[in-house]
User: What shape does this take?
Amino acid sequence: MAEGTILKALSGFYYVDTGTAVVTCRARGKFRHQKQTPLVGDRVVFTDLGDGSGALDEILPRRNQFSRPAVANIEMLVVIASGAIPVTDPFLIDRVVSIAESRNCEPVICINKCDLDAAETLYQTYLAAGFTTLRVSAETGEGIDRLREVIAGKSCAFTGNSGVGKSSILNALEPDFGLETGAVSEKLGRGRHTTRHVELFRLSNGAVVADTPGFSSFDTELHELWRPEDLPGTFREFRPYLDQCRFQGCAHVKEKGCAVRQAVKEGKIAPSRHASYVRLYEQAKEVPEWKRK
Assistant: This one.
């Protein structure tokens, strides 16, 4: 028996990194019977068959898991945004950040293309909300060393709307990657998807990173996650005010005596963040209970 981490899953094969070698494994039949699917990022126990192949025996307990992208044990979700083409809608950031917060995963906001647009409003919004917020340029290298420090030794996933430069940033962090990058369509103002599967890459600073598809891949997460009453806790700057509302069970949407809404009026919470919360709350209310996981 040996242990390792699944770096890649492709066509029924699982590539398990033991720290000294990568072993190509197949899952035993019991996983299918138990309706268990090994995920990229899983710590697993396997039997080494001695010829460079192995058989997966057990999935060790997970810190968290995501459906789309299908990854597990992610400590840090690096959300790539941009103030230049394509300009990132804050709602997309907030939705993914809320997912990360609900899954015991630390969000980091990374604003790329700062050589073209400093995205001051975005930068100040997430800095004030209490997130590690960085400005980088994959083109000039600005801020890349700081990003490398932030993710050192962590298991990370990189995500962001298509065209913001996820693969370019990974290439800047570790030039040996040579990940495929796509040109942004000037006509559409958005990028073409170039990331076709999830794979973990080891960086020289000890980080393990996953390059994942764009924000649209998180759409199906909505019905899995929040009951309306659980959503406020996934907005970290709301937390100091949640027990200060006049009425118990306050939805923090339009109620009188709401401490969260008052904090928005006083400039303590960004209006864009509250607007995103309201949109997510209304969506969560529409999901029937039988659909939730």
In short: The two ends are 34 Å apart (CA to CA). The longest strand covers residues 2-10. Residues 180-195 have pLDDT under 50 and may be disordered.
